[in-house]
Amino acid sequence: MKYALSINGKQLQAEVDPDTPLLWVLRDTLNLKGTKFGCGMSQCGACTVHLDGKPIRSCVTPISAIGNKSITTIEGISADAVGQKVQQAWKILDVPQCGYCQAGQIMAAVSLLKQFPQPTDQQIDSGMSRNLCRCATYHRIRAAIHQAADAVKEG
Ligand code: FES
Ligand code: FES
User: Fold this and answer.
1) Ligand 1 pocket, Cβ-based, cut-off 6 angstroms
2) What pLDDT was estimated at residue 155?
3) pLDDT tens, 59-98?
């Protein structure tokens, strides 16, 4: 079936089965490989993208469930003011280790900051708790979220 998709502000098309997970469409059909496959079972957060601004797990979201909603992936998050500050903080604090989980971490961090513009450590820990990092970069993730929050506040 043919699907018209709004991704990172562009109109794209994909011809796939209705039950194809969005992650497969992004990576295999549309060559947007920034979003990663981790567990494939909604457990790790590596595949997090935004659907109308809300974080979803693209590994368990069938393409047929997207409808007219807008998708944002890591490739498009710098167009968002908060996304830009988060990416800058990630670079300044050198957050990634192997990097594999980090696109999902950044997408989750942007959502967290939209909900809590000045999050406490506890809000960060609970908001980010479902995004796993095998390299245990959790300390730097937390510091980068605080730094991004301050940068957004300062404008
Ligand atoms: S790959 Fe989707 S949550 Fe792990
Ligand atoms: S940086 Fe390696 S899994 Fe998170």
Assistant:
1) 37-40, 42-47, 57, 59
2) 84
3) 999 999 999 999 999 999 999 999 999 999 999 999 999 9
Query: Could you give the CA distance from residue 53 to residue 119 in angstroms, rounded to a whole number?
Result: 18
Mutate to test the pocket of ligand 1, among 27, 49, 57 (most ligand atoms within 8 A of CB): 57
| pLDDT single digits (tens) 4-19 | 999 999 999 999 999 9
User: What does pTM read for this prediction?
Assistant: 0.97
As beta bridge partners, residue 50 has: 55, 72
Ligand 2: which of 43, 93, 100, 131 to mutate, most ligand atoms within 8 Å of CB? 100
Question: Which atom of ligand 1 is closest in space to residue 43's alpha carbon?
Answer: 3
Rounded distance from Cα 15 to ligand 1 centre (Å): 23
